[in-house]
Design brief:
The structure is a homodimer. With about 350 residues, chain A is an alpha/beta fold. The first copy, chain A, has 14 helices and eight strands. The first copy, chain A, has one domain: 3-Layer(aba) Sandwich (Rossmann fold), CATH 3.40.50.10210. Chain A has an eight-stranded mixed sheet with strand order 1-8-7-6-5-2-3-4. The interface of A and B includes residues 58 and 59 of A.
Chain lengths: ~350, ~350
């Protein structure tokens, strides 16, 4: 079942049976190197997570390391969920956006868009992103982009991305202290909050919007805000993610406010997992409602209640929650007739 | 599961979820009339096999004979496998190539390309093919061909085709005595080998490449070598077959050697069945590795272990193995979310 967070089901129902291009935005921020800030990967090798996620999603193989990224607790990457959907009901195309990767995935034949973007620095000091230029790259890409399928599912893999997202939204003045999610069940509030406070301290009163973003945000958020505005509603776009994707919308909202612009969001929506939707430590609905525009948002009513695999059960206990577009991929699977049972079995296959 | 024989999975993974045109190359060689040389059909009516295969694949009906072609042991044609895939996850188009049929299939509406090609004679004497002209027809067809889907699956139905393929590869000087497959489990080595030896005896030292092919090969092999070179990598092409399709590549390789040409094979691959891959009497991998160019090749990890039908069990025992693009069709099905269980059930339906 696909359920609403905000808006009505009509948009997502109109995509039932249609083919999607799955677009995966990949980037590294050195914020992820802060000890204990994220569990999206193997300690010491966190920077490889987007590389490994994209290898596994496209080829079913993990090539840049011997095993698929797992958290220290043994929670497997949500890339398993997205890959399972791709096996059972394939995306029309998988395309990768290199928004500043430390290491390119070791794959052939799949489209990897390159924008000459470097990994960003830690927001503890200053992310040091040329945000205006990066935003403009996103706008141009959106303007030029021609979808080969019926719609786009835009996902991300950015370790420590919930931290940079929260810092971004707070820096832009949104009242959202308790609205942001984390890949942890027991959110490591102290490390995360200290990092965010350090980031906010770097902002000076003279900073304009893009100067602020360049200090406290990440490449994925800034580029995708541009992409959404450049695409300009011409193709249905499903943002596949949780609070990070909500933050992209908050950035879009702020840019429109500053530029006194408007956006038609009739072809734009967000889809996430039930784990994000039901997370007690965050509130994606309130984030979406901070936007001045209306936005349809959904979650896949999918969990691992049909599985007895301990690594998957951790999802139901609140670990990992989202990433690599797992929620949007599940929605795509459900829109195309897949059952929870079938999806669960396929994911369990990977863990055998 | 789709597994590698040579190369990497990237090429085939990039076709996941995409639509294919299924192109079936049909021809007769009088070599098939040699008593006991093939079990691809009904004794005395072997020449009808490609006609019946194409009727069944396109319409689900066998029209030019009362029953679908079976071997004397009761092994049903692999066309059942290809048809099952077409029912469960249809090809975008099915197109037939008449490369010298004794009898045209009795069908309407489906595209049958005609090239004014006659069935070839027995290689026991001299196949009597104008190989240069036939090759050129293939080149022209490849140059002009515009695929209406994302990629092409090129398959064949040529009774006694493994015999002409082996004769061809040996005549071209490849060291491949034990590398060729057969539709039999217990390969009728004596008849087959005598025929091949007779074919090789007809070659004189003054024969050039095309003269040799004209004496010992078959229309499918020569035409498709031209087709591959004419298509020139512009459309992804999956050769769906076993050692016969490998032989097409060996001919391409020899032509390039003689003409000092080169080929880009980034969009070219071969897909076959697990029965060919695991055949103890042949070695498709070694054949592919005799080419000077790299080629990705795959097999569908599919067998009839989920079936208890005795006629299908014969496949797992090594009969039939491949034909009518069964391996490539299975790969196409697996790339589009079909399960072994679902495919098996559909094939069993035909035998009720």
């Amino acid at each position: 079942m696909i359920k609403n967070i905000t808006g009505k089901v009509d948009f997502i129902e109109s995509l039932r049976g249609k083919k999607a291009t799955f677009m995966l935005a990949l980037s590294n921020t050195k914020t992820a190197n802060i000890d204990g800030i994220t569990q999206a990967g193997i300690p010491g090798k966190i920077y490889l997570t987007p590389t490994l996620d994209s290898e596994f999603l496209t080829t079913g193989e993990v090539r840049s390391l011997e095993d698929i990224a797992k958290t220290p607790k043994g929670v497997p990457t949500p890339a398993l969920i997205t890959r399972a959907i791709h096996l059972l009901n394939p995306f029309g195309n998988i395309e990768l956006l290199n928004l500043g990767l430390e290491k390119l995935p070791n794959i052939e034949y799949f489209k990897i868009y390159d924008f000459d973007i470097k990994p960003s620095q830690s927001i503890n000091d200053d992310a040091n992103i040329n945000a205006q230029e990066l935003f403009q790259k996103g706008v141009e890409f959106g303007k030029d982009y021609e979808c080969k399928d019926d719609y786009i599912i835009l996902a991300e893999s950015v370790p420590s991305g919930t931290t940079t997202a929260k810092a971004t939204a707070l820096a832009l003045g949104y009242d959202c202290k308790n609205s942001f999610s984390s890949s942890f069940k027991n959110v490591p509030n102290e490390i995360k909050e200290t990092t965010i406070q350090n980031a906010l301290k770097n902002i000076s009163p003279s900073d304009d919007l893009f100067s602020i973003l360049g200090k406290v945000s990440d490449n994925m958020i800034i580029f995708n805000a541009g992409f959404i505005l450049g695409l300009n509603n011409k193709t249905p776009l499903l943002l596949a993610g949780g609070t990070q994707m909500a933050c992209v919308l908050l950035v879009v909202n702020k840019i429109l406010e500053v530029m006194q612009g408007e956006i038609n969001t009739s072809n734009l929506a967000l889809a996430t997992t039930s784990w994000v939707k039901n997370d007690e430590n965050s509130d994606i609905k309130s984030l979406l409602e901070m936007c001045d525009f209306k936005i349809n948002s959904y979650y896949a009513d999918f969990d691992f209640s049909l599985s007895s695999h301990p690594a998957l059960k951790l999802y139901d206990e609140g670990e990992a929650k989202e990433g690599v577009g797992a929620g949007g991929a599940l929605v795509y699977g459900l829109l195309n007739g897949l059952s929870q049972e079938k999806i669960t079995k396929q994911i369990e296959e990977f863990l055998k």
